[in-house]
Amino acid sequence: MTTPGPTRYDRMTYRRCGRSGLELPAVSLGLWHNFGSVDPPDEARAMIRRAFDLGITHFDLANNYGPDPGTAEETFGRVLRRDLANHRDELIISTKAGWRMWPGPYGDHGSRKYLLASLDQSLARMQLDYVDIFYHHRPDPETPVEESMLALDQAVRLGKALYVGISAYDPQQTRDAMKILRELRTPCIIHQPRYSMLDRRIEDGLLEVLADEGLGCIVFSPLAQGLLTNRYLRDIPAGSRASKEHGALRPDAITDERRAQLVKLTEVATARGQSLAQLAIAWVLRHDTVTSALIGASRVSQIDDGVAALDQLAWSDDELRAIDQILAAKEPGPASRSVAQRA
Ligand SMILES: NC(=O)c1ccc[n+]([C@@H]2O[C@H](COP(=O)([O-])OP(=O)(O)OC[C@H]3O[C@@H](n4cnc5c(N)ncnc54)[C@H](OP(=O)(O)O)[C@@H]3O)[C@@H](O)[C@H]2O)c1
What we know:
Helix content is about 35%, strand content about 15%. The chain is an alpha/beta fold. The chain has one domain: TIM Barrel, CATH 3.20.20.100. The strands form 2 sheets. Strands 3-4-5-6-7-8-9-10 form an 8-stranded parallel β-barrel, surrounded by 6 helices. A two-stranded antiparallel sheet has the order 1-2. Strand 8, helix 6 and strand 9 form a beta-alpha-beta unit. The longest helix has 16 residues. The chain is globular and about 50 Å long. NADP nicotinamide-adenine-dinucleotide phosphate (NAP) binds next to strand 10 and helix 9.
């Protein structure tokens, strides 16, 4: 057992999650990539410990994170027991179900059967009694939304989740789900959509719905899986997500045009005294409705770099306009492989 740094709460900013009683760190850490059985366990452990030392109290998982699916939860459980066992009450741990996890008709989508069985499996892998947030990972057009929402409600009533959330629901699906959850008095406090300078869809209605419904918003892939960093400015480095067979970032998304755009964004970042990654994080946090930027990392230094974005969150109109112009210049196409949809 190691002792987390005594200054861990000095630097982090915590933001209220919608109209709930819960506050989340402005930067949270997700374990989609780099924490599976194929990844170096010492680096995974070091990243979790460093994150906690920087005040990152929130770790986001899902049943299928790995590869192999489920192994990110196992890695996290091991580090928790080894290093953070005495700090469970300082942590917000989330997991999700909604994408394919096991064969047959009960290992995917949104049935009560799948969601509750998957939550039990996640708790067993992490060796936890409860998670803080349990999400439905994606809307399921085949299952009545009442059924999926009642399963989330049941998870809370069984004491297996303190709060629930939804991910990738569009504005109308969010309204429909919230109507049911409000009637049930289920503590649904958060939505998890994708949002970055390269994917601004939540600006077309979802952010307004979330503010109206009093839901918090934790945005995933704020760095567009590493595109909005210095990682790909010259080439596709060995070990990067775009270089990996199981990585969800398509190498063909890194075109000359995209690079030119990233270089211009880097100039804006430099003028603000930031790295491109820091610019990207500060940019998503410019909305009050956005509670937390949910980043991923493959090494400790990336977490340090990301958290330092919080040193400069102020924006001038000129800076925001310059970014809009750079982003409007072209639409280079989707940056994710189809497996990215399964995150
Ligand atoms: N709800 C959903 O459907 C859904 C979907 C996707 C993700 N998520 C959640 O969101 C989390 C974050 O997603 P993401 O990993 O795609 O986020 P991201 O922050 O956009 O990308 C993370 C990647 O960017 C690179 N990176 C991070 N910080 C860097 C820095 N300071 N400098 C240079 N490169 C840096 C690393 O790439 P390298 O690995 O190449 O070093 C890292 O793996 C996931 O772990 C998961 O919890 C949820």
